[in-house]
Please model this.
Amino acid sequence: MIKIATWNVNSIKARLPNVLKWLDSQNPDVVLFQEIKTVAETFPYLEFEERGYNMLVCGQKSYNGVAILSKFPLENKITSLIGNEADKQARYAEAVINGNLKVASIYLPNGNPIESDKFPYKLEWLERLLEHVKQLMSSNLPFVLGGDFNVILNDKDVYSPKAFADTSLCHTEVIKKMRSILNLGLTDALRAFNKQSGVYSFWDYKHGCWQKDNGILLDYLLLSPEATDMLKSSGIDKEPRGWERPSDHAPVWCELAG
DNA sequence: ATGGCGATTAACAATCGA
Model:
């Protein structure tokens, strides 16, 4: 059994005590981080090495940044999407683990406000991801794409659909593009077992959202058909959201057989 | 919900996130 988790940590340096506490209790084999908010030079490699992880870091100062931790060797490392070489924003990291499973850590652009150039950037990014997933589908390796997709796919995934209706998270074009990616044949590991409403992975720091359980489901583990065949269980670990100095996102995890 | 929180920085006020 292999346990894979994705977690938007909102700064790996600010979150290090929480992240280590969580790693030591959950012991995942693979972790996909988003919003590490630092460059590779200042990434806390040592603490993760001590716990037996190999790493791929795609860092950026202050903003964004993604990383992959794996107890298995990492090969065929990629840190940008196709056609994305000029992209200064660190939002994609991909590697093959143990020679038999491809994983990617994805931090999709937020895209707000819709009137700004951030919104077309989000749509472009989704288009590049679509093209890349098409390529992944044509290869024979099973894969898992994990991350913060900044998309609210269904009304049941948000505490107040009305409050987010006019944001980029719910925009028709964004949902349409995200669905076209999913429709290539991806399975949301969480939704494969749990169709309930009120299942969230993000709670805003503001307005007492955590205390009121005013959350949103923004983080997914998307599985290729072959990876879906191996899927055994999945869930969201809400506990770290209740700790001191938490990230505003909770880790999402799944277990694959083999 | 304008804002409220929390993280960042050629740092203590401005910017960003969802």
